[in-house]
Amino acid sequence: MRVVSGIQPTGKPHLGNYLGAIVNYVKLQEEAHANGGQCFIFLADLHAISMPHDPAELTRNTREMVATLVACGVDPAKTVLFNQAQVPAHAELQWLLSGTARMGWLNRMTQWKDKAGKNREGQSIALFTYPVLQAADVLLYQATHVPVGEDQKQHLELARDIAQKFNTDFCPEDAPLFTLPEPYIPPAAARIMSLRDGTSKMSKSDPSEMSRISLTDDADTIMKKVKKAKTDAEPLPSEEKGLEDRAEARNLVGIYAALTGKTPQEVLSDHGGQGFGAFKPALGEVLAETLAPINARFLELKDDQEALDAILARGAARARENGLPTLDATYKALGLVRG
Length: 339
Ligand code: TYM
What we know:
This protein is mostly helical and about 350 residues long. It is built from 13 helices and five strands. The strands form two sheets. Strands 1-2-3 form a three-stranded parallel beta sheet. Strands 4-5 form a two-stranded parallel sheet. α4 packs across α7 (about 125-140), α4 packs parallel to α13 (about 305-335) and α7 (about 125-140) packs across α8 (about 155-170). Bound molecules: ligand 1.
């Protein structure tokens, strides 16, 4: 079992990152550790330069993201925790795979279409080739499990397509080079939505702080944001199908379910018939309880720059070593001479 996943150090990580991905980094870290596998979690800092950014902010966010991940339970003793910028093999493998990835595949990526909008000509090349770097990230370590939220599913399908085409074009049939990675997506929290609009996903780039719960919000802020979350005026239904046309209600029930390990139907069996005046404080409490220890640990870690940099340096050394055999084999399969 090889677990690999990444998170961009852009802005503060939020509840969507936590429930959609980070919770499963920790779950799969424990599984991999128990069964002799390996877990690799990295900060996708090379991806972060595909959009306009402030260099000083990227540096600060990178360290804060390490502190957040550790505070959430990613354990550098069990997981190889690092940033892409210290492992050149990611960028190298991206170039090697660029000969295999097709323009048409990248043109179909919904994230590219959404982010570029009508101004494709004005976008960085990095934003367009972003998914090839993401494919390199996982293929470099022969990932089997990739814990992500729903929004990354298409990028992982592309990684599989690239792997498959490379294997077919350059490897003997009985000795494929790349393992096809499987996305690992949580059932209730695959797509946590904005608290202000149940039709758009919770995101670091939303200008409104009220649209998301940051993992470092304190209990008062959490309660305030939950109480102000957009909802309709109806009480909660007692059956899940009653949520079908109620995006905001469905989102809050989904968050409650993910936090308590229940299914949305179980949450409705307990809270069906309740108005939001009662449900929101219950949700705010569960949220504050879950995030309080993360917040406390984050505050302890965040200013120890030396310790955070040491975690990344150690992780990067292990990542370089682990990625080397696949990188070498890729050069070789392509017929490139390297002395
Ligand atoms: P990023 O930094 O946008 O998000 C990190 C992780 O959080 C998940 N996520 C969500 N899940 C549920 N609901 C939401 N509202 C929500 N918002 C974000 C994302 O699905 C992701 O798992 N391209 C990636 C980073 C990356 C990567 C990789 C991931 C680079 N290389 C290789 C996996 C494997 C990204 O920008 O994630």
